[in-house]
């Protein structure tokens, strides 16, 4: 129940989330999916969260690990971090703090990016979940927001439809769906003129240079 609640809340923050319920599945999923952040309950069945953490750290997986546990004293935090976790959050916790920690770890998982993304008059603030173009506030759906964030993070580079499916949706999405094309069409309409999202035939999408 906690895993599903966390996943639903993170999706409401425009994050793509996969969920597993035991350590075996966690290790299996992380072996073929590339994640920015793993929110890891320490008390997992089949394979304990400590072992999952140790294994992921040993693989030098790119994901940052946020460990959750019912134990909150200093010794437990030190033990969790010594296993390779990047951050530690005792239960119960305030959901807003978990979101803030996930976002902070996500920024550390790749190349440094500014806290506010700007290009072609578009200003996107992931923390405050606000986006504007030329000072005009835009109301985007979670998926539109996530797609635009990926395009801005690419800094003019081409982002494939497959990459957008991976980053803005989850593994349950049909890879042959036209959802990216449909989302791109509504996003272009909301951004208005002049058009800034270019379709690169056979490759993907990019934000045109200033």
Task: Outline the secondary-structure elements.
Elements: H1 2-12, H2 23-32, E1 37-41, H3 49-58, E2 64-69, H4 74-82, E3 87-90, H5 95-109, E4 117-119, E5 122-125, E6 130-133, E7 136-137, H6 142-153, H7 161-168, H8 179-191, E8 197-200, E9 204-207
Parallel strand pairs: 1-2, 2-3
Antiparallel strand pairs: 4-5, 5-6, 6-7, 8-9
Helix pairs in contact: 2-3, 6-8
Description:
The strands form three sheets. Strands 4-5-6-7 form a four-stranded antiparallel beta sheet, with helices on one face. The protein has a three-stranded parallel beta sheet with strand order 1-2-3. Strands 8-9 form a two-stranded antiparallel sheet. It has eight helices and nine strands. It folds into two domains: 2-107, 3-Layer(aba) Sandwich (Rossmann fold); 117-206, Winged helix-like DNA-binding domain superfamily/Winged helix DNA-binding domain (Arc Repressor Mutant, subunit A, Orthogonal Bundle), CATH 1.10.10.10. The protein is elongated. The chain has helices spanning 2-12, 23-32, 49-58, 74-82, 95-109, 142-153, 161-168, 179-191, and strands spanning 37-41, 64-69, 87-90, 117-119, 122-125, 130-133, 136-137, 197-200, 204-207. It has 210 residues and is of the alpha/beta class.
């Amino acid at each position: 129940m906690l895993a599903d609640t966390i996943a639903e809340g993170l999706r409401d923050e425009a994050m793509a989330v996969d969920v597993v319920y035991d350590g075996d599945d966690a290790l299996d999923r992380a072996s073929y999916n590339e994640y920015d952040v793993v929110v890891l309950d320490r008390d997992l069945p089949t394979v304990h969260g400590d072992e999952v953490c140790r294994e992921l750290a040993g693989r030098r997986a790119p994901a940052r690990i946020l460990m959750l546990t019912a134990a909150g004293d200093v010794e437990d935090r030190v033990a969790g971090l010594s296993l390779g976790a990047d951050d530690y959050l005792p239960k119960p916790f305030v959901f807003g703090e978990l979101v803030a920690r996930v976002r902070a770890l996500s920024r550390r998982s790749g190349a440094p990016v500014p806290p506010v993304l700007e290009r072609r008059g578009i200003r996107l603030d992931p923390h405050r979940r606000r986006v504007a173009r030329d000072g005009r506030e835009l109301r985007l759906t979670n998926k539109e927001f996530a797609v635009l964030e990926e395009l801005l993070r690419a800094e003019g580079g081409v982002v494939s439809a497959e990459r957008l499916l991976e980053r803005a949706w989850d593994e349950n999405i049909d890879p042959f769906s036209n959802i990216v094309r449909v989302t791109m069409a509504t996003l272009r309409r909301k951004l208005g003129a002049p058009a800034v999202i270019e379709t690169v035939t056979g490759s993907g999408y990019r934000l045109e240079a200033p």
